[in-house]
Structures are given as structure tokens and as C-alpha cells.
Amino acid sequence: METNSQSHRITTSGDVEVSTYLEIAKELQGEQPDSAPVPLLGKHECIIVIDFGSQYSMLIARRIRECHVYCEIFPHNTPWEKIKPLNPKGFVLSGGPSSIYDTNAPLPLPYIYESHLPILGICYGMQAIAHQLGGEVSPGAKREYGHAVLHATTESSPLFEELPPSMPVWMSHGDRITKAPSGFKPLAYTENSPIAAIGNDSNIFGLQFHPEVIHTLHGKTIFQNFVHRICGCKGGWTPANLITETTDRIRRQVGEDKIICALSGGVDSAVVATLLHRAVGEQLTCVFINNGLLRHREAEGVLETFRGVINMDVTYVDATERFLSQLQGVTDPEKKRTLIGETFIRVFEEEARRLGKVKFLAQGTLYPDVIESTSTETTVAVKIKSHHNVGGLPSDMKFTLIEPLRYLFKDEVREIGLELGLPQEMIWRQPFPGPGLAIRIIGEVTREKLEILRAADWIVMDEIKKENLYRQLWQSFAILANIRSVGIMGDYRTYDYLIAIRAVSSDDAMTADWAQLPHSLLSKMSERIVNEVPNVNRVVYDITSKPPATIEWE
């Protein structure tokens, strides 16, 4: 059988000779080789991301969409029948937490090679390609994590077209390739990875580094080269197209049933509500629940915006007492998220009963929420934390969820909001977590702590806006730590709370750098917080990036 226009004779680690890439893959999957490739059907350009549990898989999808090409992510064990209708133009194999030598390590299924389509393996994905096609992967003598400098070993790879011969990249791996498969040649190296990129003469490539993260300076160009030069995609996926497709899908799914939408005041829920209203009109009821965990004047601002600016009917529910009673005595952040998620749903169920029979609940879940909660889309991802609207939802929920933004990043949502004509101040509002201030108070949530944090957070935001930095930052906020420290105020000893200030820059919340705010600004915020907020005598600034930290503290 012919694969990729050539045949290779390779000996696997089990000393079994096979003659094609496909046979090698099927051998390792425990299958027998077939005699013909699977025909491709469909009409639309699409790149398929095969997910091996990487926390960055949706980031890969985002980079591809930046090339105006649609893509979808599928678990590594997805059968070809589910992918075939999309008419893929190529595959990207993601990274993942496994080692290729782990028991039951996930591997690409044979159809990926059988399809004759271009393949790009990233980190674990590259190691899987090398392992399946007869190369060698070994534990590295030194784990390579963080910044590295990549040096090209060839001048003629379409993957590295228009790139400098040396460039900064982001590494995160323990294993490394020590021998490229037959028919492949090394394309680049770093100090700790002699084979940091590979490619063959047809269309299979591998990268040990992560081009999807912002720390790889020319990562976007690498994806453009793969998608356009190697896969032959023309581009054409736009926010306008997404709006049309999403509203059509919502209309088909909802039919004649009623739907309620959870409003938070942010761009995510605003975009969802607007899409729903376009799709089903008066079948939609928007509900805004004040959980008592909002920032200063948040509830008033949300109602003014939706009722006055967007002219949308909103049902307001003040459930402050209910949420705070549920959180009483709770200190574990995962339990906080779960309780908040469950209480939200119970309140929505009660509101739905007042409206009659309501089948659907819509919310503005984004993919960072899903991937950090380890979604059901993958069986090999590692859980970071649950989000109240993902991992915190009760199993006996009465609604069918509609989450139109579930596979989008914040910047994509903002583009859609601009296309929909939403107010600028809403589109560029900094993200605010669903659990609200509950996860910015370390330890138990009390009324006293909420008032302290609201006052401190208001000062942080006020000073950030005065310096015209609000739009430049992804998030900026205050945290109330669960510790007290000794201080001196007015010649008296104090033993009061510590406030931490957090400000980060990011494109997508999957990675983030701490913002290097002017010292004069930090000084002003500290001075105001200590003087204006009761029971606080110390202020610190968080200078940790993501990773290794997350943006929120809980």
C-alpha cells in the first residue's frame, strides 16, 4: 500500500518489519492494516486538532482561527466517522501530560496517517509521530521548561518559511527525540533538544516546542505556514460567519421552547444574550442574579446597561442571603465553586417555574473555563480547578444547557460583540469570574471581608483607569488574603488584613504575564487602600505569571 507517495521499511522496537506509516500506526494500535485509504467528504476548510490532554489544545485552535480557518478539537480516540464530514485539510496533534512509554499512552489512530493529509505534531504529538513511525524517544537528561532558543538546521522547510534562523520558543517536556524516523530529517535544535523539529519530504512535521503560546515569538507564522502553505487553506472563517452559523444552530436546537439566559454584566453573557435574542426573540428571558459576591455598584451597573443601553428585558433576583448562607464556614476553593454553581442553578430553576415550562438555560461559558475544569471532551487532561459554570453544575440539573461560546476565547467573543454592535465599554470590560469575590477572598467568605475587598478593589480599578491602563491589562483586581499582620497606625499597634494587588497582561487567559505597573501607581494604590479601607494595614503586589500560577488565587 502506498502512503504519502512513498513506502518506507522501518523496524519497530519489537523488531517487526512493516512497510508503511499506516501499518506502523495500526501495528501499535493492535489493528491489522487495511488496503485502501478512507475517502474524504465535505465542503468546508477545516483543521482538526487531536487532543492528547494538553492544557493548550484550545490555544492551538485559537491560533489556527487567527489564520481565518475553522478548526475543531477532538479527543485522541475519536473515530474517523465523526471527523470525516468536516472534510479536514490537515491534522494537528497536541501536547499532553503523558509519556509515550506510559502504560496505555494515547496514540494517534491509523486514519490520521491513512488520510494522506498534512500532520503537525506538537510536543507529545511530535513524540507520538516519532514513536509510531520508527524513531526513538527517550527521557531527557534535563527537563526543558520555559524559554529556549531554537536554531534552524535547514534553509528549505515550508514550515519555517519567512522565519529567522534563530528565535525564542517555549518548551515544556521531559522526554525528547533521540533518533528521527526513517525519511525524516531534523529541522531545528535547542541547547537541550538536539532534535527540536522534524519533517519528511511530504507533509508530516513535528515540533518539540509550543508554537501556540505567546512566548514563542513567531508561533503565529508557523501556524500560518502550516495552514496555508502546507495544508492549502484559503481562509474565510470570520466573526460574521460565526454569528450566522451560531444563530441558525440555536434556532434549530431551541425550536419553539423557552430559554432563559444567565446574565453577569460582562461581554460573554451579553454576546450570548444578543445571539439568543436574534435567534429566538421573545422565547428568551434574561435573568440577572445578584449573588452578593459582586463588586461595588456591579448590580446597578448591569441593570442600567441591559435595560437602558441594550434595551433588553431583564428579570432581577437578589439572592444574596441564600448564597452567603451556603458559603458560611466554607474555606475550600473547590467547594466554594461547587456550592456557587449549584445555588445558581437552583435559583434559575425557581425562576423558570415562574415562567412556565422552560427547557433551556444559556450561559457564557468560554473554553478557558472548560479546559481548566477538565471537560468531558478529553479523557487525558489534568484538572486545574473547577469553574462554577462547568465543574460546579449539579448532576440533577433540570435544564438543557446552551453554551454558544464554549469553544471560544475572550478575544474572539469581543470580535463577535463588535460585529453585533454592543457598547464599547461592555466589550472591553475586564473579565470577572462567575464565583465573584468568593474566590478573591482566601478562606471563609463573610460580610465583613466582602466589604473590605469591595472597597480595596474599587480603589485598584479607580487608579488603573486614572492611569489609562484599563484597556491595556487583561485583569486588575484586589485579593483579601487569609492572614493578618502587625502594623503601626497613629502610634498604635494594629493586627489587620493583607490586601494583594493582581494585574496581568494576556491575549487569552491561558497564559499571562504579571504587569509591570509603575511604582508610583502601586504606591498610590497602597496608600489609598491602607488609609481608606478599614482593617487593612498591608498591601503587596503579585509578580507571578501564568503558568506557574493561575490568574485568580483560588
List the helices and strands and how they pair.
Elements: E1 10-11, E2 17-18, H1 21-29, E3 47-51, H2 57-66, E4 71-75, H3 80-83, E5 90-93, H4 110-114, E6 119-122, H5 124-132, E7 136-152, E8 166-179, E9 184-189, E10 197-200, E11 204-207, H6 219-230, H7 239-254, E12 259-263, H8 267-280, E13 284-290, H9 298-309, E14 314-318, H10 320-327, H11 333-355, E15 360-362, H12 367-372, E16 400-402, H13 410-420, H14 424-427, H15 447-466, E17 475-489, E18 492-505, E19 513-514, H16 519-532, E20 536-541
Helix pairs in contact: 7-8, 7-13, 8-13, 10-11, 15-16
Measured on Cα atoms, how large is the radius of gyration? 26 Å
CATH-derived architecture of the largest domain: 3-Layer(aba) Sandwich
Q: Low-confidence parts lasting 5 or more residues at pLDDT below 50?
A: 1-43, 374-378, 381-392
Largest sheet composition: 9 strands, mixed
**CATH superfamily placement of the largest domain:** Class I glutamine amidotransferase (GATase) domain
Instruction: Give the helix/strand class.
Output: alpha/beta
Strand order of the largest sheet: 4-3-5-6-11-10-9-7-8
Provide an overview of this structure:
Helix content is 32%, strand content 23%. By secondary structure, the protein is α/β, with parallel strands linked by helices. It is globular, with a radius of gyration of 26 Å. The N and C termini lie far apart (54 Å).
